[in-house]
Amino acid sequence: MNNFLIVRLGALGDVVHAIPFAAALRAEFPHARIDWVVEPRYVPLLELVRTIDRRIPADPRWLVRGPERPRLLRTLRELRRVQYDVAFDLQGLVKSAALARAARPRRVVGFPRRHLREPLARLFYTSAPDPGPATHVIYKNLALLSAVGAQHRRVQFPITIPRSETVDSVVQRFAPEGYAVINPGAAWPNKRWPPACFGAVAAAMRQAYGLRSLVLWGPGEKELAHQVADASAGAAEVSPPTSVAEIAGIARAARLMISGDTGPMHIAAAVGTPLVTLFGPTRPDRNGPWALYDIALSRVDQCSCVYERQCRRGVPCIAGIGVDEVLAAVERRLHTHG
Fold it and tell me: Is the pLDDT of residue 12 over 80?
């Protein structure tokens, strides 16, 4: 087999979780062509990944957007010219499965029906290996390699982070003690821990360890970042605007990141940043950090809106995680190496 196609369109954290699959596929087939179809906004992340040959921007929604329909059709024609041996759908949606099938590979591999968010996607696959007891999405993805007889299953993130003036300036400003990263935002409102709580943690970390904090923010989150900084008694400051590569660089140089279940946290996990993570409506055993010593504090067992974007009770269950609980986790993680 010489040509492989990976389909994982989004979201940011899920794209990060699929990188070890591409790395393992490359380890098994070092001379193969490995291409990846992804939503355009996540192409900059995949540009950091060494094991991929082509990052192909595509969005099935272009099909219903008149001006962009020709762009999708051109992309499909380009995919068909490659004549892929196998396309892997790591997303499990009808749109991703249909896109994988539309590339006309010899085989389309995806998950069995019971592991799919949209069971109808199974109709587009020629094979669907059972991932067995795997819980975390990284290991579920790796289990699909059995379809091509691959034995390499190590979790690796072959990411190259380019030099950045923004990252250099952050590192220099916080030297020599270093810094913690606080990431308060999340696309789902019920994944967000209260900004005042993040601020209280930042203040306590500075008092206990002399460790100041940098507050990351993404689109629409700058005000939230300022709320955290304002609640920190001067222990935290708001980050400058950052690209995906700069988030990776800032995280890699940090002594610790505290974050909810969101893309920058998964980027930090991929580059080896020590983590204390906060989970409400999502399950850390499926979506959380996978490193041995990283810590996930969860209230998912008390949540009535598991994997739903909005809280049904008005007060998200993640708010039940206390500041003292987080500080105890910070203490453990800062004093555990690995």
Answer: yes
pLDDT at 338 over 70: no
Alpha helices in 113-262 (DSSP H): 137-143, 165-174, 195-209, 222-230, 244-253
Interatomic CA distance for residues 38 and 96, integer angstroms: 10
Whole-Å CA distances, 291 to 75, 157, 228, 329, 330: 37, 12, 27, 15, 15
Burial status of residue 183 (CB atoms within 10 A of its CB: 0-12, 13-18, 19 or more):
buried
Strand ranges of the sheet holding 256-260, from the earlier edge strand across to the other edge: 236-238, 212-215, 179-183, 256-260, 275-279, 295-298
Would you call 63 exposed, middle or buried from its count of C-beta atoms within 10 A (0-12, 13-18, 19+)? Answer: middle
Query: In the structure, what pLDDT confidence band is assigned to residue 323 with cuts at 50, 70 and 90?
Result: very high
Query: Containing H/E element for 6?
Result: strand 3-7
Tens of pLDDT, residue by residue over 214-250, are 999 999 999 999 999 999 999 999 999 999 999 999 9
> Which candidate, 295, 303, 288, places its Cα nearest to that of 327?
295
Q: Provide long-range contacts, Cβ within 8 A and 24+ apart, for 232-235.
A: 232/198, 232/199, 232/200, 232/202, 232/203, 232/206, 233/199, 233/203, 235/199, 235/202, 235/203, 235/205, 235/206, 235/207
How much is the average pLDDT of 286-308?
A: 93
pLDDT of residue 30: 96
What digits encode the pLDDT tens for the residues 303-321?
Answer: 889 999 888 887 899 999 9
Using a CB cutoff of 8 Å and minimum separation of 24, what contacts does 146-151 make?
A: 147/86, 147/88, 147/107, 147/109, 148/1, 148/4, 148/25, 148/28, 148/29, 148/86, 148/109, 150/24, 150/25, 150/28, 150/29, 151/28
Q: Compute the distance between CA of residue 158 and CA of residue 197 in angstroms, rounded to an integer.
A: 34
